[in-house]
């Protein structure tokens, strides 16, 4: 006997090339989002994406975001994803831009507030208050001593690196390099960082070149998804790490150049702001 299949409505969205498959759970039930993320993220046999994001009802905010990486693991926060969730809520009339241009979204790393900016009446850009950057190694978590891990020498995969670690609700390891980051073999080095025992919950790793005091270029290897074209929490972690290492200044707008586009990050002692685009690619139905 053939299992009965269900049709689910989805929206494919991207923020500077970090693309996810979005499902609203206001009115449809998503069973086993972990398995769905693995199946649908496949770029050859699925819809294709860096993972799946659920837009769910919340008792404490305008909506809740739940995100799943390409390997099905749940992430606590997603910077590019949360801007797209904000746009999703406006585009689907779940919040009216004329009544409110600031909304709140519940995540596993707390409630975040977003401000939306329109062009020709459409939400195109959002600024997210990402909350305070966490530098305490125990909270990141990274298994190294001290009250911060800034410019610390470590050996990973028999190679020496200098690392700076930051949590933006999820763990990041930032590596500043002088050489051209386009030539780094991320497929080989990324998994070595991701699975090194000093990171008990695995880690997202950013390889970074400082172009000047206000401009940084980065590539990212995301835990659970591999190399992506952009990572919002990663860009925030990079700006924080650049200030902690004295390459950039707190309070300045810092442009982070990623493979899929640019984000503007502003880091202060109180919080980190991230500003960038959010776009719908297409909507459809998928049988699962
Ligand atoms: N691409 C995201 C981060 C997604 C989650 C990450 N891979 C994790 O598991 O921590 C972003 O834009 O922040």
Write a brief structural summary:
With 288 residues, the protein is an alpha+beta fold. Helices cover 15% and strands 43% of the residues.
Topology of this structure?
Layout lengths: L6 E9 L2 E7 L8 H9 L9 E6 L6 E7 L4 E2 L3 H13 L10 E6 L2 E10 L2 E8 L22 E5 L2 E9 L3 E6 L9 H9 L9 E9 L2 E8 L3 E3 L3 H13 L8 E6 L2 E7 L4 E6 L1 E9 L1
Parallel strand pairs: 2-3, 4-6, 11-12, 13-15
Antiparallel strand pairs: 1-2, 1-18, 3-4, 4-5, 6-7, 7-8, 8-17, 9-10, 10-11, 12-13, 13-14, 15-16, 16-17
The structure holds the ligand N[C@@H](CCC[C@H](N)C(=O)O)C(=O)O.
The ligand N[C@@H](CCC[C@H](N)C(=O)O)C(=O)O binds next to α2 and α4.
Characterization of this structure:
Pfam families: DAP_epimerase (PF01678). It is an enzyme of class 5 (isomerase). Pathway: Amino-acid biosynthesis; L-lysine biosynthesis via DAP pathway; DL-2,6-diaminopimelate from LL-2,6-diaminopimelate: step 1/1. The protein has 288 residues and is of the alpha+beta class. The protein is built from 4 helices and 18 strands. The chain has an 18-stranded mixed beta sheet that branches. The protein binds ligand LBFN2T5F.
């Amino acid at each position: 006997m053939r299992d009965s299949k269900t049709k689910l409505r989805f929206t494919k969205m991207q923020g500077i090339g970090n693309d996810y498959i979005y499902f609203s759970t206001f009115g449809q039930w998503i069973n086993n989002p972990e398995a769905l993320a693995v199946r649908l993220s496949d770029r050859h046999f699925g819809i294709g994406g860096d993972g799946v994001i659920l837009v769910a009802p919340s008792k404490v905010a305008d909506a809740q975001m739940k995100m799943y990486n390409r390997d099905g693991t749940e992430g606590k926060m997603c910077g590019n994803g949360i801007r797209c969730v904000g746009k999703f809520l406006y585009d689907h009339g779940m919040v009216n831009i004329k009544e409110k241009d600031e909304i709140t979204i519940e995540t596993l790393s707390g409630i975040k507030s977003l401000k939306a900016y329109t062009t020709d009446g459409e939400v195109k850009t959002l600024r997210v208050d990402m909350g305070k950057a966490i530098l305490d190694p125990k909270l990141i978590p990274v298994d190294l001593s001290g009250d911060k891990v800034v410019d610390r020498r470590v050996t990973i995969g028999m190679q020496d690196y200098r690392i700076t670690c930051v949590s933006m609700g999820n763990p990041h390891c930032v590596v500043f390099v002088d050489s051209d980051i386009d030539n780094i073999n991320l497929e080989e080095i990324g998994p070595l960082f991701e699975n090194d025992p000093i990171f008990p919950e695995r880690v997202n790793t950013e390889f970074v070149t400082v172009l000047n005091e206000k401009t940084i270029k980065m590539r990212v290897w995301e835990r659970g998804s591999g190399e992506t074209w952009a990572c919002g929490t990663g860009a925030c972690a990079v700006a924080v790490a650049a200030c902690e290492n004295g390459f950039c200044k707190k309070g300045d707008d810092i442009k982070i150049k990623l493979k899929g586009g640019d984000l503007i990050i502003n880091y202060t002692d109180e919080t980190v702001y991230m500003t960038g685009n959010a776009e719908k690619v297409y909507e459809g139905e998928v049988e699962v």
